[in-house]
Amino acid sequence: MMTNDTTSLDALLADLPVEDAQPAIVDATPAKPSRDLPKLMRKIPVTLTLEVGEARVSLADLMALGADSVVELDTLAGEPLTLKANGCTIGRAEVVVAGENYGLKVIEIAGLDLDSLAG
């Protein structure tokens, strides 16, 4: 910048009113767009599974399992089964036939309120 330009810039700046001795700090970071977190979360795919039950067996019993073996589970026959989303229990359901596939009928479900999440 030449000296002549500096002088004319100083003259222009001198005409501006001085409100504060401190220069104003301007945040150059662009504002992030507001996102509706619950609405975004509704699009995340999850895997639903129906857990029939479980059984604790010794390694010897496990090694003895064969094609016709029967292992008794801890769930009573006819009792609703555990419904899980990505491995987390969310309710209870029972098995139904849906066309040519098995399906599940929800019996009870925990409160899955995505709207309660803050963004």
Automatic annotation (TrEMBL):
Membrane topology: Peripheral membrane protein
One Pfam short name: FliMN_C
Domain annotation Flagellar motor switch protein FliN-like C-terminal: ranges: 41-109
Stored InterPro entries: FliN-like_C, FliN/MopA/SpaO, FliN_T3SS_HrcQb, SpoA-like_sf
Main location: membrane
Location in or out of the cell: Cell membrane
Domain of life, source organism: Bacteria
Keywords assigned by UniProt, alphabetized: Cell membrane, Cell projection, Chemotaxis, Cilium, Flagellar rotation, Flagellum, Membrane
Similarity remark: Belongs to the FliN/MopA/SpaO family.
Protein name: Flagellar motor switch protein FliN
Organism for this UniProt entry: Roseateles agri
Lineage of producing organism: Bacteria, Pseudomonadati, Pseudomonadota, Betaproteobacteria, Burkholderiales
